[in-house]
């Protein structure tokens, strides 16, 4: 069993499948009167958030609490962190408090890897810089499997600002491990160099969304920040959404069974129109629900036994 | 699925294997438990069988099938995974969890009979009672086991016992079933032959 | 003054002979020397080289004495076989006036472990806006000849042209940190497969190559000398090769780490491997090694860059770039080039001394020359332990690596700074 979850690359097909299967069992708890399991009683999970991300923090918090863990939220704002305490000193503090797991969100790529050197507990990467967000990829895979019945052989288009997207990196790694085929779509300025070699051989790149749509089972829209145009990644929001936004007419080019995903938060009108976001193909609300089950599965598999 | 006792002696010098129940014996024992359930529950009305994985689950299905053969009643069958309720999670690498399937009628107000293969320390049953508590509120809970090998560590006893096997702590009892292992058999391992 | 007799030592790889150091100079060279008053150093199996000269050292004083001082850096240099180092200007305050360069020069004299030759800043405060008083620094006691904004690129082409022209008056040289700043905004590591995987902003090779290409054209146009710091890419090698073939007066250096380590080292996110320019690919390493052998690259320079613990034990993006180099450079050269003693002497002593204008350094041991030399045990292997380094900092990328070669003794003008592998003072 793995000790930390830092990257989608930490998961082989068996482990990833075990997490998804466990998540499916965890999901049944949500339908019960008592939404609580005793498995992590007496364990302490720290949510260490250096960036505001209420949705991710709440999702991890709900997951830990449903497994009866004690949860400590450590937000960088208004804490010693804001006063300039180093990550290492914070890690030593958490270590002294007996944290069994640290769920970390950080603006610097690789910060969870550093943290893992300094604490004995498990580290879960809840998003680091422009690197990875492995539990998001797991909940995306879970959602695809739940909707489409399988992952192997699926064709998935990931569309938008791949360069700055931790969601895209984790998804490419995990989906490839699980046998899906990923095509990255966006303007060339927002597709990082050597992506197939860097992440997964067989990953395709396309600059033409319309050409890709008729052949995919899943289209995953990434959040695109308007500020990127200041750095000349694209000329204007209008041109971006005209070339790479998903609107009604484009959605109708998708195969009938295809689903539309978005990790949130959405820029309605930028990368996705309200018509698409609110359509029956959209899994955006399910993704949020599934996030709790998947994070329960991850916390259980990391903390539920003696994995040292 | 029996809990090992907390302390276990080193392997015996001369291990032995003894067949306690052969295939036909297992079937006879299951039949007898089915009859006992019918008798003790006045025809198995308002009764639900919940098997504890791994081998309690097929045993519960067999019992339900024998009961419906004998008396033409349909007893709902489910599976109750107790992994997340175990008291020794931290002593082992993380265990994979299995499915919990509660019959569609639920268990509230019903007589629930927990079914397992071997009753040993009683800790599995303790965990099952906790798990049951989170799933619903039965009117009563009973316990059926294929084998009781003794050495209880908790105040738990079975309502239906297929066979009592006196054992030494160093010995182990292994149940195999056709559904999970290919053949029905109960074997006693270990101990020293004198 | 104590005399030293080194017996049976190979001078720059030649047949073993004896070497007598007396009164600050090499007094005699030849077999069977006898000097009853001299301390005898058994040189059997050892190699004597002219003392190494580093064109690119950060000594951090004044300003960051917690990371290094002139004295601690000088000791590290002596232990690495160096007898002279060029101290970069990015101190606090910046070495952009005669006062600061004289202070550094004086601190070096007081330490007395190596000759510390200050480098002057090209622009005031390294800000890249207007020229520092280059002439005043040249005329100061420090006699500055190399000017560099190292750490920053002199990106403005007009300012670069003026600097190249201006220093001709006192035979100065501009050492450029070639990094197009707009192409490297926020850059964290080499732009390529690994940066994509790690989600770190890439530092593209072209950002270095574009500046070198521009600068060799400018140097050619104004007929000035240009030195290129820490060349790191195969493309830069090609630009330099063509410029040299045309007769441009350009010299170039490569660091030990760019000859050995690739960008894959970043995969642990341990900022001990963060450096500027960044570690590149295996193809770049191959090109740099062959350029070093054929002379397109003239010099190995350490870019010794000590950093305090808190500046490295942190997130990669927040860490300062730079690595220690003085105490390991010769071992890396030996590892990369093999026992090519003449080549090592050329790239690490004679040529850098000539570029820096350091007379008395970079001269092979021979009767009458100043006794600036170092003695190496090429057969020794040592495992690098950061805690054992003389530098005040611990940011060596070679921790727990086993490297060939060990400095046995170093002499500065006849005085030992290192004996028996240990610093004398």
Automatic annotation (TrEMBL), chain A:
SUPFAM superfamilies: Aspartate/ornithine carbamoyltransferase
UniProt-annotated binding residues for L-aspartate: 83, 166, 223
GO terms for cellular component: cytosol
Molecular function as annotated in GO: amino acid binding; aspartate carbamoyltransferase activity
Record: residues binding carbamoyl phosphate: 55-56, 105, 133, 136, 264-265
Keywords: Pyrimidine biosynthesis, Transferase
Entry's Gene Ontology BP terms: 'de novo' pyrimidine nucleobase biosynthetic process; 'de novo' UMP biosynthetic process; amino acid metabolic process
Catalytic activity: carbamoyl phosphate + L-aspartate = N-carbamoyl-L-aspartate + phosphate + H(+)
Pathway(s) served: Pyrimidine metabolism; UMP biosynthesis via de novo pathway; (S)-dihydroorotate from bicarbonate: step 2/3
Role description: Catalyzes the condensation of carbamoyl phosphate and aspartate to form carbamoyl aspartate and inorganic phosphate, the committed step in the de novo pyrimidine nucleotide biosynthesis pathway.
Protein name: Aspartate carbamoyltransferase
Organism per entry: Micromonospora lupini str. Lupac 08
UniProtKB/TrEMBL annotation, chain B:
The keyword Transcription regulation belongs to this UniProt entry's keyword annotation: yes
A Pfam family the protein falls into: Pribosyltran
Signal peptide: none
InterPro entries membership: PRTase-like (IPR029057), PRTase_dom (IPR000836), PyrR (IPR023050), PyrR_bifunctional (IPR050137)
Family: Belongs to the purine/pyrimidine phosphoribosyltransferase family. PyrR subfamily.
Stated role: Regulates the transcription of the pyrimidine nucleotide (pyr) operon in response to exogenous pyrimidines.
Protein name, per record: Bifunctional protein PyrR
Gene source species: Micromonospora lupini str. Lupac 08
Recorded name of the encoding gene: pyrR
UniProtKB/TrEMBL annotation, chain C:
GO MF annotations, alphabetized: allantoinase activity; dihydroorotase activity; zinc ion binding
Cofactor: Zn(2+)
Residues reported to bind substrate: 58-60, 90, 276, 307, 321-322
Residue stretches making up the Dihydroorotase catalytic domain: 47-234
Top-rank EC class of the record's enzyme: hydrolase
Pathway: Pyrimidine metabolism; UMP biosynthesis via de novo pathway; (S)-dihydroorotate from bicarbonate: step 3/3
Binding locations of Zn(2+) 1: 56, 58, 150, 303
Cofactor stoichiometry and binding remark: Binds 2 Zn(2+) ions per subunit.
Keywords recorded for this protein, A-Z: Hydrolase, Metal-binding, Pyrimidine biosynthesis, Zinc
Example of a GO biological process term: 'de novo' UMP biosynthetic process
One GO CC term on file: cytoplasm
Catalytic activity: (S)-dihydroorotate + H2O = N-carbamoyl-L-aspartate + H(+)
SUPFAM superfamilies hit by this protein: Composite domain of metallo-dependent hydrolases, Metallo-dependent hydrolases
Annotated Zn(2+) 2 binding sites: 150, 177, 230
Pfam families reported in the protein's UniProt record: DHOase
Active site per database record: 303
EC number: 3.5.2.3
PANTHER family associated with the record: ALLANTOINASE (PTHR43668)
Protein family membership: Belongs to the metallo-dependent hydrolases superfamily. DHOase family. Class I DHOase subfamily.
HAMAP family, alphabetized: PyrC_classI_B
Function: Catalyzes the reversible cyclization of carbamoyl aspartate to dihydroorotate.
Protein name: Dihydroorotase
Name of the gene this protein is made from: pyrC
């Amino acid at each position: 069993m793995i000790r930390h979850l830092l990257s989608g690359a930490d998961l082989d097909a068996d482990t990833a499948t075990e997490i998804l299967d466990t998540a499916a069992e965890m999901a049944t708890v949500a339908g019960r009167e008592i939404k609580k399991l005793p498995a992590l009683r007496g364990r302490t999970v720290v949510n260490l958030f250096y960036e505001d991300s209420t949705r991710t923090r709440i999702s991890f918090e709900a997951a830990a609490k449903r497994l009866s863990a004690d949860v400590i939220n450590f937000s960088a704002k208004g804490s010693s962190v804001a006063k300039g305490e180093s990550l290492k000193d914070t890690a030593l503090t958490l270590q002294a408090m007996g944290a069994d797991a640290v769920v970390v969100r950080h603006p610097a790529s690789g910060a969870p890897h550093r943290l893992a050197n300094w604490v004995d507990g498990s580290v879960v990467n809840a998003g680091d810089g422009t690197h990875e967000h492995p539990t998001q990829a797991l909940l995306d895979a879970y959602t695809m499997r739940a909707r489409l019945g399988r992952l192997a052989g699926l064709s998935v288009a990931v569309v938008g600002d791949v360069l700055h997207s931790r969601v895209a990196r984790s998804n490419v790694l995990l989906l490839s491990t699980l046998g899906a085929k990923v095509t990255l779509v966006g303007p060339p300025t927002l597709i990082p160099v050597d992506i197939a070699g860097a992440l997964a051989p067989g990953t395709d790149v396309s600059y033409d969304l319309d050409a890709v749509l008729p052949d995919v089972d899943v289209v995953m829209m990434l959040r695109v920040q308007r500020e990127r145009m200041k750095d000349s990644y694209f000329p204007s929001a209008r041109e971006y959404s005209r070339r790479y936004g998903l609107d009604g007419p484009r959605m109708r080019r998708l195969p009938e069974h295809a689903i539309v995903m978005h990790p949130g938060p959405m820029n309605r009108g930028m990368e996705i129109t309200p018509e698409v976001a609110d359509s029956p193909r959209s899994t955006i609300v399910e993704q949020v629900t599934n996030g709790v089950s998947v994070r329960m599965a991850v916390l259980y598999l990391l903390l539920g036994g003696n994995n040292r | 699925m029996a809990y090992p006792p907390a302390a276990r002696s080193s392997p015996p010098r001369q291990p032995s294997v003894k067949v306690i129940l052969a295939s036909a014996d297992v079937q006879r024992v299951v039949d007898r438990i089915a009859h006992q359930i019918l008798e003790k529950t006045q025809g198995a009305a308002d009764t639900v069988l919940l098997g504890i994985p791994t081998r309690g689950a097929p045993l519960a299905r067999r019992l339900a099938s024998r009961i419906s053969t004998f008396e033409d009643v349909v007893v709902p069958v489910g599976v109750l995974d107790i992994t997340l309720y175990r008291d020794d999670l931290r002593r082992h690498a993380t265990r994979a969890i299995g499915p919990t399937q509660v019959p569609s009628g639920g268990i509230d107000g019903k007589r629930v009979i927990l079914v397992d293969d071997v009753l040993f320390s009683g800790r599995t049953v303790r965990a099952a009672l906790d798990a049951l508590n989170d799933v619903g509120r039965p009117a009563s809970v009973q316990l059926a086991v294929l084998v009781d090998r003794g050495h209880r560590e908790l105040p738990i006893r079975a309502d239906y016992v297929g066979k009592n096997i006196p054992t030494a702590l160093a010995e182990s009892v292994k149940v195999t079933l056709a559904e999970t292992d290919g053949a029905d058999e109960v074997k006693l391992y270990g101990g020293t032959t004198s | 003054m104590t005399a030293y007799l080194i017996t049976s030592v190979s001078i720059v790889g030649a047949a073993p002979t004896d070497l007598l150091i007396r009164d600050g100079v090499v007094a005699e060279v030849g077999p069977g020397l006898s000097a009853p008053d001299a301390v005898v150093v058994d040189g059997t199996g050892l190699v004597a080289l002219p003392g190494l000269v580093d064109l690119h050292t950060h000594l951090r004083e004044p300003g960051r004495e917690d990371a290094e001082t002139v004295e601690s850096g000088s000791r590290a240099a002596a232990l690495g076989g160096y007898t002279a180092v060029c101290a970069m200007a990015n101190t606090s305050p910046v070495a952009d006036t005669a006062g600061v360069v004289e202070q550094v020069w004086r601190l070096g004299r007081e330490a007395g472990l190596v000759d510390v030759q200050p480098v002057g800043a090209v622009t005031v405060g390294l800000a890249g806006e207007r020229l520092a008083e280059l002439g005043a620094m040249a005329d100061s006691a420090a006699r500055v000849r190399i000017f560099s904004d190292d750490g920053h690129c002199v990106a403005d082409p007009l300012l670069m042209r003026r600097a190249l022209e201006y220093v001709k008056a006192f035979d100065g040289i501009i050492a450029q940190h070639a990094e197009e700043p707009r192409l490297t905004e926020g850059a964290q590591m080499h732009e390529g497969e690994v940066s994509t995987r790690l989600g770190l902003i890439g530092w593209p090779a072209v950002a270095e190559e574009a500046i070198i290409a521009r600068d060799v054209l400018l140097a050619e146009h104004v007929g000035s000398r240009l030195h290129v710091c820490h060349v790191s890419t195969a493309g830069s090698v090609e630009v330099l090769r063509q410029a040299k073939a045309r007769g441009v007066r350009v010299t170039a250096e490569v660091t030990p780490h760019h000859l050995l380590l690739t960008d894959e080292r970043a995969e642990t996110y341990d900022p001990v491997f963060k450096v500027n320019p960044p570690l590149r690919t295996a193809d770049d390493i191959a090109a740099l090694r062959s350029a070093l052998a054929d002379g397109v690259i003239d010099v190995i320079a350490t870019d010794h860059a000590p950093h305090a613990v808190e500046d490295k034990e942190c997130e990669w993006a927040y860490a300062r770039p730079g690595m220690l180099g003085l105490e390991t450079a010769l071992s890396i050269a030996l590892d990369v080039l093999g026992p090519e003693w003449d080549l090592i002497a050329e790239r690490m002593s004679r040529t850098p001394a000539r570029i820096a204008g350091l007379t008395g350094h970079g001269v092979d041991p021979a009767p009458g020359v100043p006794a600036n030399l170092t003695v190496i045990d090429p057969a020794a292997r040592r495992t690098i332990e950061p805690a054992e380094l003389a530098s005040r900092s611990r940011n060596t990328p070679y921790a727990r690596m086993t490297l060939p070669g060990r400095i046995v003794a170093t002499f500065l003008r006849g005085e030992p700074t290192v004996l028996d592998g240990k610093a004398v003072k």
